Amino acid sequence: MKIKNYYLLILIILTSVSHALAQSDNQCACCSENHTAFDFWIGDWTVYNTDGNFIGTNNIMKMQDGCVLQENWNSADSSITGTSYNFFDSSDSTWNQVWISNTGNVLRLKGNLNDEGNMILKSELVNNSRGTYYNQITWSKNEDSTVTQHWDILNENGELVNTAFEGIYKNH
After folding, report:
1. What's residue 5's pLDDT?
2. CA angle (120, 121, 123) in 5-degree steps
3. Domain 39-171, CATH 2.40.128.20 — does that match?
4. From CA 131, how far away is CA 34, in angstroms rounded?
5. CA atoms of 60 and 71, how far apart (whole Å)
6. pTM
7. What would the DSSP string read from start to end of the chain?
8. Is there a contact between 147 and 40 (Cβ–Cβ < 8 Å)?
9. Cα separations (Å) of 10 from 2, 14, 23?
């Protein structure tokens, strides 16, 4: 009888340990290096143009157990507000952004970090009344802990047409 109880106790312990290990492996589904690659953008930011003029605020926070970055933009005069959801998609190993603004503008971007550590996300080819173009946004972490966001409009050949936005993010 004592041997049966001993084996039962061993079986319970092994089952508990394997269950605990399985849970610890799944506790953070979005903690991989890929999932945290855009964390340099997290913060409560004051945003300036390249001339140093205040152009807005942006709050970037992690949500859904670290699986999503949520952006909340508010322009200096509060005329333009917007929210984006940014996430790493393991199925195709890309970062994705969906942006929605109070003007009805919807932007869908996809991309990754480049070799310099810049996050570069690009739209599919857009064809509307304004022409045929790509949106490409690059976020760069700077040595002084600021972040630069550079939004380019590219033609069908990927050549620069103009810059739609350039902002310097300073944490406050």
Report:
1. 59
2. 145
3. yes
4. 34
5. 4
6. 0.83
7. -HHHHHHHHHHHHHHHHHHHHHHHHHS-TT-STTTTTTGGG-EEEEEE-TTS-EEEEEEEEEETTTTEEEEEEEETTSS-EEEEEEEEETTTTEEEEEEEETTS-EEEEEEEE-TTS-EEEEPPPEEETTEEEEEEEEEEE-TTS-EEEEEEEE-TTS-EEEEEEEEEEEE-
8. yes
9. 12, 6, 20
Distance in angstroms (rounded) separating the CA atoms of residues 150 and 35? 22
Q: How far is CA 107 from CA 25, 51, 72, in A?
A: 35, 26, 14
Query: What mean pLDDT is predicted for residues 17-45?
Result: 79
Reported residue count of the chain is 172
The letter for the amino acid at 5 is N
48 touches 56 (CB < 8 A): no
Q: Output the six-digit token pair for 65.
A: 């157990």
- Please report, in angstroms and rounded to a whole number, the separation of the first and last CA atoms in the chain: 68
* Structure tokens, 10: 């061993």
Tokens (6 digits) for 7 = 């084996």
Amino acid at 68: V
In the block, residue with structure tokens 């004592």:
2
Quickly tell me which residue has 């970037």 as its tokens.
Answer: 60
pLDDT at 13 over 90: no
